[in-house]
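Fold this sequence, please.
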Amino acid sequence: MTPQGPPMAYRFLLRLASFVCPDHARAAWRQQWESGLRDWWILAERGELTNEASALAARFCRGAWADALELRFRREQLLHALRGPWFPILCAVSTVATAGLLSHGFQVIRRVAGLIRHAPPLPLNLRPHIHYDPRGDIVAAYLAPLGLALLIAVMLLVISRLPVRASGWRTWVHFVLKTLAVQAAVIVLWFEGGSALRSVIQSEALRILGGGLVLAILFIAGFGAATRWCISDQRRRCPVCLRLLDMPVSVGSWGSVFEPATTELLCAVGHGSLSLSERDNTGPDRWTALDASWRELFENASSPEAR
């Protein structure tokens, strides 16, 4: 009797995984794994893999998919994408979009905005109101921490001494977009996530202290930390391609006055090197541009043939 081939499900999974592979390696990859599947199935038909046939089949398919994904998304390519200029912005925008979907269209933000828009005008005689309006407390509970967080962020930006004046408009645009996106993500998480957290707290005192005061303090601290991270991230980017610099090397000593402690960073594309002071805001960052001859060296080192 002519032996039957492997089951259609396994062949379909291999054929589907082959489309994940790059075009230039797809035919050879499919031939190799389909040959391995036939060899495995011959052993299964002989009864040598009776007790482990299903487990080996699942392991074989997982190995095929893992190999196809590794060919498509190599570690160097993933690191190249993670160090790109748009990765933090995309992460922040994705966080805002996810929070908007989970909160059904930013319900808390729209509610606070509606309270601000329909707030009564201030009296001209400055006498106290007879009727108490609790909506003012809700607006103040959100706007007061937000105003303090924005003030701290502005102070951090003023004392940061970012060397963006000589870097061109692309660095400015990237820094502004990244900072606004990250700050917007923190604000949305505080508005929508804080409201969701307070809704599950049963105790009123715990809801006011933990869900209100503590979350407000955490929001202010997180907003400042996010702004500081944006500043630090921008300092470590190439002013030409806006990618994160790589290959850090420590130079100098903390106890030396003439050779202070610095970190030398290099652009992976070959645009230049950055000497970054390890003492925050005490020394200027020095950028050294490299000519076009260095870029050929970096391109040859990052090519697949060089590996």
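The first strand starts at residue 246 and ends at 251. Residues 65 and 216 are 46 Å apart (CA to CA).
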